[in-house]
Design brief:
Length: about 375
Amino acid sequence: MDDGRIAKQKKSLSDWTIAHGFFSGAETPTHTAVLGAVNDYLTARSLGPGGRERNAETERLCKINLAMLLHGQPEQIAIVSSASEAISMVARSIDFAPGDNVVIHELEFPSGVLPWLALKAKGVEVRVVAHKEWEVGAEDLLASVDDRTKLVLTSHVSYLTGARLDYRKLYERLTQTNTLLVLDATQSLGVVPVDMMQADIVICSTYKWLLSLHGGGVLAVNPGRTADLLPAYVGWRSVEERAGRERFESFAYHADARRFELGYPSYPTVYALERSTRLLLAAGIDEIERHVLALGGELIALLESLGLAVTTPAEPARRAGNISFLHEAAGEVAERLLDRRIFAMGSDGRVRLSVHAFNDRSDLERLRACLPACL
């Protein structure tokens, strides 16, 4: 990205510790600043009480950064072990009764499906909305909502197709009901704007578009309609008082998002996430989005010129960084690209190419030269 602020942040390709490709929807290359952040954590480990103070301060700053990315407040952010854990915690925090239902859709990642299937034993109905030409819209989901719908879960951007859902429109309608909206921003936060105040809960992993590491999950809680949502789990970090005789008799959850935090987070991940979110904020999400949508449009044009069935919408407002096309031998295509040092995801009958801020036209030219021989 030669004309945006991210170029000033990365300075040169040497700031990335490995060659990058089109793999951000699965893993991102490690920025040297993130590598330095992990080393900072390892140094703090040797400082005793001073190290714990550094950990607490880094976690505080990390939540401030995440709140800025999500247009919320730091106390509305919890850091857990993964997005999967976050979704499961939410699933177990809702008082379901037999006959209640949840609404999901066919383009959802397994972590957004399995926790609800586990509730079928309690008599909870799982309503799966079919896609229409590889897209699911707000109206499609709303058509399955009734007065027994406790929750709608959807990804902001599909891991499978790259289509972006208008969650703001969905939430506007759901606020007229008692149905909560859980938004999985794993494939969007860090590359396009996300507003946590336009959903009840936003969940995100840390090792994809946020440029951090495994071992973390973001759980952002909009307090507007979730004050009565209490975790089914409890740990020493979840509660207000941890000392005194009363701790053997009762406890009170924190009123804010900390009630979902059981114990210490993965501090290497927190250090990395604080540094990577600082990079993203300095670059500017609007600037990153502009770059990614422009480069993604060129990528779609390239794929269509090869006669490939692209499932990602061409219209910029309906996509983010993931671009997918159908192929019956998707895994083999990805392997052939890998042989040429181009990283892509090939599974589920589609090849996914992900564009982030560090990608540029030289990556497209590499792909243009190599892809025809890999199909």
